[in-house]
Structures are given as C-alpha cells and as structure tokens.
Amino acid sequence: MRIPIEMQSLAYEMEGAVIIEWLVEVGARVAKGDPVVIVETEKAEVEMEALDAGVLVEVVSVPGDEVLVGAPLGYLEQ
User: Per-residue b/e over 57-71, b at no fewer than 16 CB within 10 Å?
Assistant: First the structure.
C-alpha cells in the first residue's frame, strides 16, 4: 500500500514551504518519526519526520520546489 508523505503545516497560517534536501534516498527504509526531508518555511529550516513506516519508493518534490501544505512530497510503500 502506498502512503503519501505530505507537506505538513509546521506553523500557524503556514501555506507552504520550499524543499531543501531529502535525508533519505529512494529505496531506503524509514521508521515512524525518522527525519526524511528538510524544508524551509518563512522563519526557519525544519526537518520533517515520517508519520508512517515504510520504504521510500518515489520522490515527487525535489529541492527548490515550493510545496503547499497537504501536497505530496513523496510516497512510502508498506
């Protein structure tokens, strides 16, 4: 089953963020709570954690992309 890694709202009234760096590569196994991507908000760079466990099978958003809250960054496979 594919599970989206979605852009999380990290601050009040946050609309989106810019992808800075993926911390895991496609094919890597991640546990719930592992940092997977660094994003830049209006105020800071923040590590986003995986909300589910699985293997990263696809990256949709790459460094430099501006992503709205709720949009997929990539997908995990359980």
Answer: eebebeeeeebeeee
Q: Quick one: fold of 2-77?
A: OB fold (Dihydrolipoamide Acetyltransferase, E2P) (2.40.50)
Nearest residue to 52 (alpha-carbon basis) of 70, 29, 21: 29
From the CB of residue 31, how many other CB atoms can be counted at a distance below 10 Å? Answer: 10
The amino acid at 69 = V
- What is the token pair recorded at 76? 């995990």
| Single pTM value for the model | 0.90
Q: For the residues 39-43, what does the mean pLDDT come to?
A: 90
Interval 1-21: pLDDT, tens: 999 999 998 878 889 999 999
The residues spanned by each domain of the chain are 2-77
d(CA 17, CA 46) in angstroms, rounded, equals 10
